[in-house]
Each structure stands twice: as structure tokens, then as C-alpha cells.
Amino acid sequence: MLHLGYKLLSHMTWREPLFCVLAAAGAVTVSGSQDRPVRSDQQILIQLEKDWDAAFLRKDLPFIENVLADEFIATYGDGSRGDKAKELALAAEFNQQIDSSTLDEFTVKVYGDTAVVWFSRHLVGPSQGRRLELTYRYIDVFVWRAGRWQCVASQSAKVTGP
Predict the structure, then answer these.
(1) pLDDT at site 160
(2) What is the edge-to-edge ordering of all strands in the sheet holding 100-111?
């Protein structure tokens, strides 16, 4: 039996042992990843939107810069437009008190390396001594680049409030 095993090994090319090592490494990786849940692109994008919202409120410019593609274009609720630089400036200058910011009503569609995310954002905070509640609807377009999702376009519309 050992002789047959030795004969079999002696006829292997250099690729076969390499394949065996890679297959074994793959088996270890697969079994190791079974301990944590696999997240879908939809789940990743929803979490990315929530993290982006939180980053804006705490002025985390490096996070926002990483999420936005260089060619990012936004169309704001008042119809004005902005680019990546303007979005970063808005985050840096943000100084309004927000008691809560809640994102919900997510719809996420992935089309290959492109994704579209629709959602609502509910804001609550004080304004001129009164409680103010606003709701916006967003559409964000993402592309998959360099191993991550980046936003290339965003549009928002105010649906409630003064």
C-alpha cells in the first residue's frame, strides 16, 4: 500500500500538491466562516446607510469620504446640487441638535456591480423652542469598487414638516 502511495505521489506534477494545499486551505476557511452569519449585499448596504447617517451626525469625515465616490453628485431636497466636496463640507459644518435620526422603509436592488437603495429618514429635534419632526425619502446609487460599495449619486425629498 505504501509503495502504491509513493508511486502515485511520484507521478504528480507540481500543480497537484499546490491544488491539495489550496483545497485544504479553502476547507478551513469555509468551515471557519460558518461560525458567523453571511450578510447579503442588501444587508451590507442597509448597514452602510445607517453607518453613514451616524457618521454625518458625529462629523466622521474619513468615513464619509470613504463612502462617497470621487464623482459623487447629490440632489438635495431644495433642488440644489452638490458634489463630494460639498457633502464633506456640510458634514463638517453640521451644528443642529438632532434628538433622533431613524432610517427605515428600505428597498435595496442590486444589479451586478450597481445597487439602488430607497429609504426614509425621520428626524426629530428642537426648532425655535418646539419639537420638530421631519421625514425625507432618499434614493442612493452605489457601485462596487475596490472591494467596497461607494455612493455615486444621492437624491432626497422632504415629505413632511414645515
Answers:
(1) 74
(2) 81-83, 68-75, 148-160, 130-145, 114-127, 100-111
